[in-house]
Every structure is written in structure tokens, then in C-alpha cells.
Amino acid sequence: MKEKLLRDCNLHTIVRLPNGVFNPYTSIRTNVLFFTKGEPTEAVWYYEHPYPEGYKSYSKTKPMRVEEFAPEKAWWHNREETEQAWRVPVADIIANGYNLDIKNPNTPEDTHEDPLVLLGQYQAAAAAAEEARNALKASLMAALERDNG
Questions:
Q1: Which tens digit of pLDDT belongs to each residue from 8-24?
Q2: Domain map (residue ranges) of the chain
Q3: Does the pTM of the predicted model rise above 0.70?
């Protein structure tokens, strides 16, 4: 029943707006759904709207502006997967329990190394920096001795 409903609803695109678009009423992300009359849902396109340069969130003093949708407009009629856009087959949505809140697969995941591995990397970097400092110091001392000698 749910599968038929999803296929028949003609959902074709979801534009994911970032946090703060509707501040102060809610700070959560918002998905805008677009439907196409007469076309069954075979796959859903997602487009994740990025913040403008220098923004970490929207607010009353820094609201979303219509000009920011230029990339979405350019992508709309010539769709292809990019860092902001991806396509999800309806079978994947069904397998996901009909949850439409699907993360962007093109976003690099945060990796968390083992603390001992990170400590080893830090110690190696610190040793390399100390070696470079010592080499610079020796070079400067040699130059000063030449000038004074």
C-alpha cells in the first residue's frame, strides 16, 4: 500500500534548506517537496542548498535571499549529480522505511581516528617542526657568524 502511494504521489524533487531558514520559529532544516502531475515516482532528486560564503546560519538579520537560488535554477532543467545534488531510487526510499530525510552521500563524513593514532601523528608533526626550527636556527647562527667574522 505505502509503495503504491509513494509511486503514485508523483514526488520528483526535494530541495533541502539549511538550518535557520525559518528562524526564530524553528532552527531545524526544512525540506521542500516538488511533485509532477501524471508522472509516477521512480526516483527522487535531492538538492542541498548551501549557505552563502561567510554564513554559518540564517537569522532575522541575515535572511535567505532569492538570489541564492540561482544554482538550483541552473541545475533544475539539466540535472546531474554534484556535491549538492543526488538521486535516490524509490526502492532505496522504501528500504529506508519511507523516510525521505536522506543524507547527502557526497558530503565527506567526519572520521574519528583512534586517539593513539592521532597522538602519534601529532608527535611526528611536532618532531618535524622542531627539526625545521633547529635547522633554521643553525642557518641563522651560521649567517650571523659569517657577518661578524
A1: 778 888 898 988 888 77
A2: 2-95, 111-149
A3: no
Alpha helix locations (H) across the chain? 2-8, 70-76, 90-95, 115-148
Q: Please report which confidence band the pLDDT of residue 149 belongs to, taking 50, 70 and 90 as the band edges.
A: low
Tell me phi and psi for residue 38, to 5 degrees: 85, 0
Pairwise CA distance, residues 21 & 32, whole Å: 12
d(CA 138, CA 14): 61
Residue 88's pLDDT band, with cuts at 50, 70 and 90, is very high
Give CA–CA dist 96/105, Å, rounded. 14
Torsion on CA atoms 35, 36, 39, 44, rounded to nearest 10: -50
Instruction: Give CA separation, 49 vs 29, 35, 54, 140, in Å.
Output: 10, 18, 15, 52
One-letter identity of residue 16: R
Give the three cell numbers for residue 31.
525540506
Report the candidate in 3, 19, 20, 26 with the shortest Cα–Cα distance to residue 98. Answer: 3
Tell me the CB-side half-sphere exposure of residue 126, using CA atoms within 13 A.
6
How far does Cα 72 stand from its chain's mean position?
15
- Reduced to 3 states (helix: H, G, I; strand: E, B; else coil), residue 89 is strand
